[in-house]
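Morning - S-adenosyl-L-homocysteine inputs below, output right after.
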Amino acid sequence: MTKLKPPVEKNDYIDVSFEDLTHDGAGVAKVNGFPIFVQNALPGESGQVKIIKVKKGYAFGKLVTHERVSENRTEPRCPVYKQCGGCQLQHLNYEGQLQFKQKQVKDVMARIGHLPNVTVHPTIGMNDPWRYRNKAQVPVAEREGGLVAGFYQQRSHDIIDMDACLIQQQENDDVVQAVKSICEKYGIRAYDEQKHKGTLRHIMARYGLVTGEIMVVLVTRTSELPHKKQIVEEIVQSVPNVKSIIQNVNSKRTNVILGDQTHVLWGEEYIYDSIGDVKFAISAKSFYQVNPEQTKVLYDKALEYANLTGEETVIDAYCGIGTISLFLAQKAKKVYGVEIVPEAIEDAKRNADLNGIENAEFAVGEAEVVIPNWYKQGIKADVIVVDPPRKGCDEALLNTIIDMKPKKVVYVSCGPATLARDLKILEEGGYQTLEVQPVDMFPHTTHVECVTQLILKEEAGNQ
Ligand code: SAH
């Protein structure tokens, strides 16, 4: 391959047309095949761009003027959309966002998965794609003696005050505002990242969509919290439906939000929520899907793809607090869940008890180690469900699946590129990818979640 000299230079002004979006939502224009990435530009648009940075294979530009404007462009609803960076697609209407996500998945299926013809369904969106998040984690800082709580400005650690986050449940916004003013009233100092001084680091709120229960977590640098009693009393008075007030102590210099120590200041250690018929206890540190309405859609799809009759043995790899496992257990003979975080497995066991589910067993460990051991012990799975983090499945796990030969594999993924990579390996190992269903779990962001159904090819031939 001959290396082309980039056809643009820094500070050039050029007229371009945009034909695509990158996975992080920037517009893509091409000059003699050379891609230019431009924020806030949409496919179908054109305009003048100033080149701000040139790399070997691509360049970044800044939109100077808009000429043609996409019919899918819309006014962002959030007044701080540009500064915040939490959402990347509010300037694209919702229909356009759903199409973008489907296209992203189709593109990686062809490019990385070598599956250009696989069925990728239209993305299942929300009827009302606003105020969906059930968890808020808001950093706190000081300005002119008062407290501000909001978000980090893009690419910085300056905190911008925010009254409302439009993708957050209203209840969580209300908690953040209430806790901020109560702490301000009692003169609580905000944590100062530079000096590693001060007390209050983050205000966290969790909301059970079905139960309406609320958890408030005060993340502090020190275990001492002045006026603790009064602060707790005032939170109880001003937050209806609060069931749990927690203090989490994080004394480290770190970007990680929660520390190791958690104390209940008032009420319960957990709040409860349900997805479908399954009830979950959620603690301050538990992983729980942030969009419960779409989680139900996602899990229903996974269940449909598993197509259980009640006779099957199922493995749920990367099971977290057992959400998918318990959903599947209602329709399977036996479910084995495996997860690397010990606390999550404790939660999974508790959640099984809470629902009277006796046919689910959970193990702590790496899926790529535990499942090969189960295979050696003679455990046979009819269906394997995997729901790995963004980096996808470990190859050792994929090879074990190929050896174990479950009739069906259901792959839940939050990273389309690694999904496509892993599907290629499973295809080479004897599986056929039947269909991919993107589900919009995170409207207005570029994140895409997918459920994929695979079937063992020799099985397909026997039918
Ligand atoms: N299925 C769950 C959680 C999915 S998130 C749900 O829908 O709620 C992915 C999970 O994989 C996380 O809980 C993470 O802790 C776990 N994990 C990461 N690496 C792992 C590994 N190598 N083996 C097992 N679990 C792992």
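Note: DSSP finds eleven helices and 22 strands in the chain.

O.
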